[in-house]
Structures are given as C-alpha cells and as structure tokens.
Amino acid sequence: MAKILIPTPLRQFAGGNDTVDVTGATVGEALTALTTAHPDLRKNLYNDAGALRSFVNVYLNDEDIRYLSKDATPLSDGDTISIVPSIAGGR
Amino acid sequence: MLTIEKAAWDVMVAHAEATYPNECCGVMLGKGKTVTRAKALDNTYEGAQEDRYEIRPEDLLAADREARKDGLDIVGIFHSHPDCAAYFSKTDLENSCPWYSFVVLSILKGKFDNAGSFLPNAEQTEAPEEELIWPKS
Ligand SMILES: [Zn+2]
Fold first, then answer.
1. Structure pTM?
2. Could you tell me which residues of chain B have a Cβ less than 8 Å from any Cβ in chain A?
3. A33, A70, B38, B104: which could join B86 in a potential S-S bond, CB 3.0 to 4.6 Å?
4. How many domains does chain A have?
5. Do A7 and B64 touch (CB under 8 A)?
6. Cβ proximity of B75 and A75 under 8 Å
7. Taking CA atoms, what residue in A is nearest to B120?
C-alpha cells in the first residue's frame, strides 16, 4: 500500500481527501488506481492525449520519477507519491 | 477574491524589494482564499533573472509538507515584476499551472508599487484577474 498526497485544489475531485491510499506494483499502476477511483482527477492531471500535463511532476518520496524509472518505478509498502506542479514565469 | 494578511504581505514585499532588480518568487500558505503565511523561495532560473523566475519543484514539495504539518494549504504563488506593471505575461501564462492564485508584485525603482492576482486555466491560454486584498498601511 502506498499513499498519494493530493494537492489542495484537486481534493474536490478526490472525494475531499487530502491523501488517497492505493495499491500497485509501480508508480504508474498507483496513478491508474487513483484516477480509476476518482475519474474527475484524470483531466486535471492528464491531457487529451493521455500524457501527464506539462506542468505536472510526480515525486516518489523525495525523488522526481522522471529521474527514476518514470511510470515503471517500483513501489514499496509505505511509499508516498506527491503531485508537484512546475512553476516559472517572467514579465 | 484573494486576501493576504499583513504578516504574509510584509514577507512578500520585503523579498520582492530585496531581490530587485531581479525577479523574486515564493509560495503563499493559508486556508481557503486567505493567505496567512508567505515563504520566499530561491529563483532558480538559469540566466538573467531581471525578467524570469523559476521555482524548484523540491521547494514546493517542502512547502506542501510544511503546510500539511501546520494544517494549512498552498493557496498561491507570488513573483515580482521589477520596473514593470503587475500583469500576467505570456511567459507567466506558458509556465503556470491552473491550481493556484498567482500574485504579481510590481516593484518600481526598488519600491513596491502595485499588485494583482491571476487564475490561469489548464490549457495555459488565459488567466483572468481576481480581486486582491492586501494591507494598505
Ligand atoms: Zn510575471
């Protein structure tokens, strides 16, 4: 069992929960379990092509999964998955 | 409507003025649409920072953990526009996310001048302005 931390603005699409417990062998399976249980989250996290939106980063504990094995990153019991946006700008 | 309490506002203005003529950035914590705490974050943009900022995702992750620990939420993101108006630029829009209020502080000749708050959409095509209340003293 792993835990996914839901950012405040997305909790309304996750039954009001700030964390959701999921089972899965990989981060990808855990995210699929999350969006299957809470389908309204899907359009907030993924674009129409089914890819994570450009501003969405997924962290397993303290590591960006992009630098691990992305969706195939294996999950261990007690792991925490965080959804962290990319933010930049200018004038 | 977004309301920023004085303790948080003072941190934001001080950070924006101290980093002038570069852009600053940071995160706003609170409850609902009220900001009670602001945290200055590093501008990690690699290049000239007079007109660009970038937030390290790990810093946002740390801010989210702090918020959860203290029973708060991340309410928004702030950054400054040195010698430029408080508007939401094309660069801002293209690098935003739709989940938060984005407050822009205009700093003219090193001093705070004005501010605005914006709500970007998921497609990063528009960011309507919302009413922003900050301490006027
Ligand atoms: Zn800007």
1. 0.96
2. 23, 25, 45, 51-55, 57-58, 60-61, 64, 68, 73-75, 77, 79, 81-82, 84, 89, 91-92, 95-97, 99-100, 102, 122, 124
3. B104
4. 1
5. yes
6. no
7. A87
